[in-house]
Amino acid sequence: MSTPAKESTGLRMGRPFGIPVYVSPTWLIVAAFITVSFQPRFADMLPGYGESATYLVALAFAVLLYVSVLLHELAHCVVAKHYGLPVRRITLYMLGGVSEIEREPETAGREFNVAFAGPLLSLGLAGIGALVEAFVVPPGGLAQVLMWQLWLSNLIVGVFNLLPGLPLDGGRMLRAAVWKVKRDSGTGTMAAAWVGRGVAVAVVVVPLLMNLMAGQEPAIGSMLWTVVLASFIWLGASQSLRVARVRARLPQLRARVLARRAIPVTAEVPLSEGLRRARESGAGAMVVVDHDGHPVGIVNEAAVNATPEQRRPWVNVGALSRTLEPALVLGADLEGESLLDAMRGSPAPEYLLVERGGEIYGVLATADVNRMFSGV
């Protein structure tokens, strides 16, 4: 699965295929849980081994499971790189792995291929491992148990990720299918996200009903684990819904429409005088210019609001302005994703909008852009 880029908080393990791989400290939590949960099973399978040895075998299973997750995520990343998509890193954490692919595929077909690559590799490794266990490894003993671990871990990773709901790979495949049919990626995201919420509920309800129908008490540990997994799926699906709603509003995001009219003022003008001029002109922003009329700064709205009214005649607008760096100057024609990308590149409360010839058009306030997406 992929997520927006974020800072790593784990131990860097290497760079396979040029992709940095990190392991989060939260992995230790689930490794301990898997080790304790599976040790009794391995003790039954290896009666000739002592308790310490079967704990080591259970720990090996936990490690192999995460090696399987790593190979799964690498498959996504290799296909993504094949399509020219930038891959920032892979992070292994408590609930699995995250491939940070920084841009979405441009077509439904590529989206499907990137998503399917992970489960395909996992299920392929599971099949190979099962054949090796059945026909190559001698029955009984540690070798057979280790091979069983190998193919079972890949089977778990492959099947779980094929569940048809975001944020799982099966959800991305469903998204791609709906995208292909409806010719709209947003519709695909909405459909796969709602199915993801249904999958989250089923992950808890189905095992509970099966236990009740069999007349068995649900195991507390297993129920806790299913609730954690269901919460992960529900939160991921909900985040996908929010992203889809944001993207649905992107066509309305135009710098020209959201721009505030701005008046030019020199740095030594008192704030009270600058505000008076802005009110008279019906402007919502002030741009600091030098004596040749070239813009050199933008007066910060938050700083203006924080200045008490009685002090405004004694504070110059230059003291409340931010120096106009090149990244804070945006084209007035920017809109949609391009506008958001430009703002993400240099986060700031205000930006100067200019025409193609360099003439000042107005000021774009980040607060105005955020209001467009409030309630999403």
From TrEMBL:
Membrane topology: Multi-pass membrane protein
GO terms under cellular component: plasma membrane
UniProt keyword terms in alphabetical order: CBS domain, Cell membrane, Hydrolase, Membrane, Metal-binding, Metalloprotease, Protease, Repeat, Transmembrane, Transmembrane helix, Zinc
Lineage: Bacteria, Bacillati, Actinomycetota, Actinomycetes, Streptosporangiales
Cofactor note text: Binds 1 zinc ion per subunit.
PANTHER family: MEMBRANE-ASSOCIATED ZINC METALLOPROTEASE M50B, STAGE IV SPORULATION PROTEIN FB
Residue span(s) of domain Peptidase M50: 60-134, 141-204
Family annotation (Pfam families): Peptidase_M50 (PF02163)
Binding site for Zn(2+): H72, H76, D169
Protein name as catalogued: Zinc metalloprotease
Protein location: Cell membrane
One of the GO biological process terms: proteolysis
Membrane-crossing segments per the record: 21-40, 52-71, 112-136, 148-168, 189-213, 219-237
This protein's record includes keyword Signal: no
UniProt xrefs under SUPFAM superfamilies: CBS-domain pair (SSF54631)
InterPro entries, per the entry: CBS_dom_sf (IPR046342), Peptidase_M50 (IPR008915), UCP006404_Pept_M50_CBS (IPR016483)
Domain of life: Bacteria
MF terms (GO), sorted A to Z: metal ion binding; metallopeptidase activity
Family: Belongs to the peptidase M50B family.
